[in-house]
Specification:
Length: about 350
């Protein structure tokens, strides 16, 4: 076993059974909320969590294909568990402990990664890789869970807003080990604190998210804020991807696959154009799954692998940005095959 190289050995995804078409939201559309803005061009379909489905349920289902391929004994070596949950169902703490209990593991490193947002899978890769290289830890499991679509955006006061039709629910998982089988070549992450807190959650009448009140919470968008997010997102993802390409000595246009978060069609088109890649090298799950937030990267990559689009030896770039642009990350992997 290589002790100086970390591999992304496998990735898997989970999508809830409940498929919801754009018609569901169209019937509730508020005329005052209808917009032609590129941020809110609705996907054809998305998945919604089932009533009572918990983050631990979703995590277990996302990890199941990895266990089926590698055996449940792989859990014995998990010393690092990193979990990102968009909507933790446990007050104050995240869902990491509950996920560990469900999987029957007690890792030395258990991290609830709240601030990685749509790029949390890349952020988790960087943290896990650093811990693996600097400790006796044997392997890491990263789980990203997106569960707000069917719980927040279907609420009576929210479902008529243009933003409600964009998200979908799902979860992804990645297994990292010390080996050279599917090596992580380089990772770039950037925090931009000047934009922190700009993706706000509001209600009408106004209140803080933890205060009691009659208004249901939703993301606070304004035309000015949308324009700024579009500008930052268009810039940040190509920047971090190109930075990684520069360090590994490969032009962006020579990447075999670009796997990004899936916020909307405009970002997807602009990112691949900026990196000079054709659509067939940039998998797109937006119309089938909606914006899966932090689960978008692993779910999209898992689907591409299942479809035979990622042969062994492929150079894969994972990239994304979070929230209003306060975080971005990219990671290059020489995929070893499944």
């Amino acid at each position: 076993m290589s002790t100086d190289t970390v591999s992304l050995l496998d990735v898997s995804g989970y999508l809830p059974e409940n498929i919801v078409s754009a018609d569901y939201f169209a019937q509730y559309a508020d005329p005052d909320e209808v917009t032609s803005n590129l941020m809110f061009k609705a996907p054809k379909f998305r998945r919604h969590v089932a009533p009572g489905e918990t983050p631990a349920d979703m995590a277990e289902r996302a990890v199941a294909p990895i266990l089926a391929r590698h055996g449940r004994d792989v859990l014995r070596d998990i010393d690092i568990l990193i979990v990102h949950t968009q909507l933790p169902d446990i007050g104050i703490v995240g869902s990491g402990g509950d996920v560990a209990k469900r999987l029957g593991i007690a890792p030395e490193w258990l991290i609830d990664l709240h601030n990685g947002g749509c790029a949390s899978f890349v952020y988790g890769m960087k943290l896990a890789r650093q811990i693996l290289l600097s400790s006796d830890a044997r392997s890491a499991l990263i789980v990203t869970i997106q569960n707000v679509a069917g719980q927040v955006f279907t609420q009576e006061q929210v479902r008529g807003k243009a933003q409600a039709a964009i998200p979908g629910d799902g979860a992804g998982a990645g297994l990292l080990v010390k080996s050279g089988d599917s090596p992580i070549l380089d990772i770039e992450t950037r925090h931009l604190p000047e934009f922190a807190g700009q993706m706000t959650v509001i209600a009408d009448p106004p209140r803080r998210y933890w205060e009691a009140g009659s208004g249901e919470m939703h993301v606070g968008f304004t035309e000015s804020k949308i324009a700024k997010v579009l500008q930052r997102g268009n810039r940040l993802v190509p920047e971090v991807a190109n930075t990684v390409c520069g360090r590994i000595g490969v032009p962006a246009q020579d990447l075999d696959l670009l796997v990004t978060n899936q916020p909307n069609r405009a970002f997807l088109r602009n990112w691949r154009d900026a990196l000079q890649l054709p659509p067939e090298r940039h998998p797109d799950t937006f119309d089938d799954c909606g914006n899966l937030f932090g689960a978008g990267i692993p779910v999209t990559f898992d689907r591409a692998v299942d479809e035979g689009r990622v042969p062994a030896g492929s150079l894969v770039m994972f990239a994304g940005f979070a929230h209003a642009g306060d975080f971005a990350g990219a990671a290059a992997v020489r995929w070893g095959g499944r």
